[in-house]
Structures are given as C-alpha cells and as structure tokens.
Design a protein that fits this description.
Largest sheet: 4 strands, antiparallel
Shape: elongated
Number of helices: 4
Number of strands: 4
CATH architecture of the largest domain: 2-Layer Sandwich
Strand order of the largest sheet: 2-3-1-4
Radius of gyration: 19 Å
C-alpha cells in the first residue's frame, strides 16, 4: 500500500477505545457484537454511513483491557462528522456505564501519536510549573 493510499484511508478512519469486547470464543459472533456496538454509538451520534471495522491486535481472552477498534468509513466527511458529534455528545454518553471509558479519536500514524504524546507532556509540564509558581507566590505573601 502506498503512502498516499494509507493517508487517504487514515482520513476516513477513526479509532474507538474502551468499547467492551465480546467474551465469545467464536470469531464471527465477536465481529457481529462489535458491529452492533459500533452501530449503537454511531446511531447516538447521528452518523449514517456504511463502515468496515476490525479490532487491532491479536485476540487474547485473558487480556485485562479491550483491543482498539478501527472503523473505516466510505468517505472522509463521515470521519469529520463522527468526531464533531463525539465532541458534542461525549459527556452525556459517558454517563452510561457501557460507554464510561469510551474514547473516539482520528486514526493516526505512529509518528503522529508520538508527536501528540510529546505535546501533551509539554503542556502538562508547563501547567504544573505555573501551578507550582502560583503556590510559591501565595506562600510568600502570607
């Protein structure tokens, strides 16, 4: 697959984190349950689009967490709609126990994930530094 094809696919894709994985030992049942769960999420978000989905990584019934779920839409506009609606509805949706750990993000390359991680760390460090300066200044004033 060329770099351009991968990029085009990524623009049409999202990754769903925290969607409960089926305990069935039958692969087709697990796939069917994943599809139904994704349809529930997309229906709540008001997204009408056919999609292809698959769990990333090897199935391990002894694993604690659930595998990431990749969803590839037919067009990039459905990715944008899904992400926008998720941003709008996520607080309300997370109140339901089955979606309390749900997170939806765009599909990213390893390099993009690493860059975002570095950026988050940088922002967290800057925030912590500001907070410690504020505490020091308040302590001096008293």
């Amino acid at each position: 697959m060329s770099h351009q094809q991968v990029n085009k696919s990524a623009n049409r894709s999202i990754v769903v984190i925290g969607l409960q994985e089926s305990k069935s030992t039958t692969p087709s049942i697990r796939v069917g349950e994943d599809k139904a769960a994704i349809e529930d999420v997309l229906n709540l978000l008001g997204v009408e689009s056919p999609f292809v989905s698959y769990r990333m990584g090897k199935y391990d019934p002894t694993a604690k967490g659930c595998r990431l779920l990749k969803i590839v839409f037919g067009a990039s506009k459905f990715q944008r709609i899904t992400l926008a609606e998720w941003k709008r509805h996520r607080v309300e949706m997370k109140k339901e126990a089955k979606w309390s750990r749900l997170l939806i993000r765009p599909s990213l390359t390893r390099e993009q994930l690493e860059a975002e991680k570095i950026e988050r760390t940088k922002k967290r460090d800057e925030y912590n530094k500001r907070m410690s300066v504020n505490v020091t200044e308040r302590t001096k004033n008293h």
